[in-house]
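hey can u check if this looks right to u? its 72 residues, i copy pasted from the old doc so theres a chance i mangled smth
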Amino acid sequence: MNDKRQTTDTDEELIDILTAISVVSKRLARNLTILAAQSKSKEGEKTNEQYERDGIDHRRTAQVCCCYQRRG
């Protein structure tokens, strides 16, 4: 009887440990997902800054040099 009780206690302890591991794993996965999304968002912001600096977002009017215009 005592041996069975010890096995039950060991099983319950194992269940508690596995449950704790599962909870921590879920939390880590959620945090990694959030970090990945933030990292992707920051990469997008850097890309937009680059485009703004190069003037891609704000198109300029075409500049024509008078030397190349044909006179009619």
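The mean pLDDT is 78.
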